[in-house]
């Protein structure tokens, strides 16, 4: 188990405290590049719950994302929205997705997100 980057934990804590969803970040976790914007966990959970509630097949899972108690201590995860996994010059999914990444799994990161083009 690796030790989480203290600076990245501080960035995540600022996102959590401000309830902002405008912090753009790119991380490498498990060899995968994920780029997008961070959201506070509560906001991320609410959005995931709404998406699941709108699904005929997945609506039963919606409540799972609204019943969690907030954790004490520093953040342990990054909560991305409007995020993409980068593969070559393509971002997947095209419209952006919702990803939860353990901070201890991040091996590299940078502020900002990457633009992609199919040109």
Order of helices and strands: HEEHEEE
Instruction: Give the N-to-C terminal Cα separation.
Output: 40 Å
Shape: globular
Main sheet summary: 5 strands, antiparallel
The multimeric state of the shown protein is single chain
Mean pLDDT: 87
What structural class do the secondary elements suggest?
A: alpha+beta
Characterization of the model:
With 119 residues, this protein is α+β, with helices and mostly antiparallel strands. Helix content is 22%, strand content 37%. It is built from two helices and five strands; from the N terminus they run αββαβββ. It has helices spanning 6-18, 41-53; strands spanning 23-29, 32-38, 77-87, 90-102, 106-111. The radius of gyration is 15 Å and the shape is globular. 18% of the residues are buried. The mean pLDDT is 87.
What features would you highlight for this structure?
119 residues; alpha+beta; 5-stranded antiparallel beta sheet; 2 helices; globular
Question: Nutshell version of this structure?
Answer:
By secondary structure, this protein is α+β, with helices and mostly antiparallel strands.
């Amino acid at each position: 188990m690796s030790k989480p980057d203290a600076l990245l934990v501080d960035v995540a804590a600022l996102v959590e405290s401000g309830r902002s969803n405008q912090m753009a970040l790119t991380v490498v976790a498990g060899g995968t590049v994920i780029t997008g914007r961070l959201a506070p966990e509560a906001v991320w959970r609410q959005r995931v719950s709404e998406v699941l509630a709108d699904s005929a097949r997945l609506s039963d899972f919606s409540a799972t994302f609204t019943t969690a108690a907030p954790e004490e201590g520093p953040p342990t995860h990054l909560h991305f929205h409007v995020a993409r996994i980068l593969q070559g010059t393509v971002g997947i999914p095209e419209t952006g997705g919702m990803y939860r990444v353990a901070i201890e799994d991040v091996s590299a990161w940078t502020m900002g997100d990457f633009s992609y083009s199919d040109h």
